[in-house]
Specification:
The complex is a heterodimer of chains A (124) and B (361). Chain A has six helices and no strands. With 124 residues, chain A is mostly helical. Helix content of chain B is 8%, strand content 54%. The chains are: A mainly alpha (124), B mainly beta (361).
Chain lengths: 124, 361
């Protein structure tokens, strides 16, 4: 097989995987998605009490419900951001995580809010 | 003491130190006394981190052994400062006619040595020597424990200079434009330095990206103006997409300059969805990369001398967080002749805190 044929086949493979991904994305429910991806971290995620920011409907949010909502949001942002360049890391002790996340804030240009919430999720 | 021996000692020391690298829940209360003050417990501590890799490849029949070690020192100061530096030691050892074994000089590089000041949520100021933010590979994917395929993309030298680093100042940041989009940017100026191992070119440039968190999609572009030699402009564009539905990463880059142009596309798929051997499969990743390089009007010492195409495939197996084994095959096509490239290796990322680590709340 010559170079051009191999290139064409691989480009076709890349493209079809994009289409497949796009098609599946539309079909699949986000909850099953979270468990199919980031397997290592989903184990830690299951101990969250199931509340989501939207599912905390109490009219006066208590410090506890804010904590829980922030934790869930932190986990979401961890999943969105921390596996983008490398495998999502496991949890390190809080002061180590604080340094690593400050490093990532500079390197990965994650936002101030991402830094705060991810640190919260990773250290609690 | 010869290089290989020194390298082996360094590697052993690092692997031994990895016993520090435990998940947080493994920490005993004796080692981590309870601190009452929450902020004290989350005060960043200096860390020594980095990676080690033992890579061997066979290009067109000639074997090459390539051990590499990178050490990073991170020193946070107060709430807003960070000193970060990475040094790499690598050896490219080949067989020489008439001599048994593999030989090659040990190379040392100061990859970066920078001071970062987080001025506000929109701006971080960096001074010193920093990785040139042209494209995504150099800054984000270069370390051996991160890269999916062990060989560099052919277009990596475009825009990253002789040593992948710049010496000067950089403004950068990331902020949410609205809940659906975050913007990231880096603007920099670099001075000429001909002192090894801290050489750099005189350039000014910028990179910007739009990240759509819901789709986990980033698109971005890079620009650089050379302030020496032919004073030309360089352009780049990148895409990173991690579809939510699949454990798939797709990364791609294009770069264009007077010394050469090209692109690479790299899909990587983690086999977490296969219904059999689940434990093994979720640790396994298959990767492919297609790339092309076209020579430019001007010659370059760092880029291939002739237009080249390459297709690669690879398999990565993640034993633990940070430890992986890798096997890649590539076929290169160029006017200089076609070649097969086989690569095998083990890479490892370590992290050692240099102080009290705090305890989980």
């Amino acid at each position: 097989m010559n170079a051009r044929a191999i290139l064409a086949t691989l480009c076709a493979l890349c493209l079809s995987s994009c289409f497949l991904a796009a098609a599946q994305e539309r079909k699949q429910d986000p909850k099953t998605v979270a468990s199919s991806r980031d397997q290592e971290t989903s184990a830690e995620a299951t101990d969250a009490d199931g509340a989501t920011p939207a599912a905390a409907p109490s009219p006066k949010p208590t410090p506890r419900s804010i904590e829980a909502a922030e934790r869930i949001e932190g986990e979401k942002r961890f999943r969105t951001n921390c596996g983008r360049c490398h495998q999502p890391p496991h949890k390190f002790p809080p002061r180590v995580m604080a340094t690593a996340i400050r490093h990532m804030r500079v390197r990965a240009n994650i936002t101030d809010e991402d830094q705060r919430l991810i640190l919260k999720y990773m250290t609690q | 003491m010869n290089h290989k021996f020194r390298f082996a000692i360094l590697l052993t020391a690092i692997l031994a130190s990895s016993s520090f690298q435990r998940p947080i829940h493994a920490q005993s209360p004796i080692e981590a006394p309870q601190e009452t003050d929450q902020s004290e417990n989350e005060k960043p501590v200096p860390i020594f981190t980095g990676s080690a890799g033992f890579i061997s490849d066979v290009t067109g029949g000639s074997p090459d052994i390539h051990p590499i070690f990178s050490g990073i020192l991170l020193i946070p100061i107060g709430d807003r400062w960070l000193i970060e530096t990475r040094e790499s030691f690598e050896d490219d050892m080949v067989q020489e006619p008439g001599r048994p074994g593999f030989h090659g000089p040990l190379q040392k590089e100061v990859d970066y040595a920078q001071l970062d000041f987080i001025a506000n949520p929109y701006l971080t100021v960096t001074v010193g020597r920093f990785l040139t933010p042209f494209g995504i590979y150099n800054e984000r994917l270069y370390p051996v424990w991160i890269r999916n395929l062990q060989s560099d993309p052919l277009i990596l030298p475009i825009g990253t200079g002789p040593s992948n680093a710049s010496t000067g100042a950089m403004l950068r940041g990331g902020f949410a434009a609205n809940p659906a989009v975050t913007i990231n940017y880096a603007v920099y100026f670099s001075a000429l330095s001909t002192v090894t191992p801290v050489d750099s070119e005189r350039t000014a440039g910028a990179r910007a990206g739009l990240f759509f968190p819901k789709a986990r999609l980033e698109i971005g572009g890079s620009f650089q103006h050379r302030l020496q030699d032919e004073r030309s402009n360089l352009y780049g564009a990148h895409v990173i997409w991690q579809p939510l539905a699949l454990p798939l990463d797709i990364r791609a880059e294009v770069a264009r300059s007077q010394r050469g142009s090209g692109y690479w596309i790299e899909p990587a798929y983690r086999l977490t969805q296969l219904p059999f051997w689940r434990n093994e499969m979720r640790r396994t990743q298959i990767v492919a990369r297609v790339q092309q390089f076209f020579t430019g009007e001007l010659p370059s010492d760092d880029l291939p001398p002739v237009s080249t195409q390459e297709v690669e495939g690879g398999l990565n197996y993640y034993f633990l967080d940070g430890l992986k084994a890798t096997a890649n095959y590539g076929r290169q096509f160029s006017q200089a002749g076609n070649a097969n490239i086989w690569t095998f290796g083990v890479t490892y990322r370590f992290l050692v805190p240099l102080g009290r680590t705090g305890s989980q709340q």
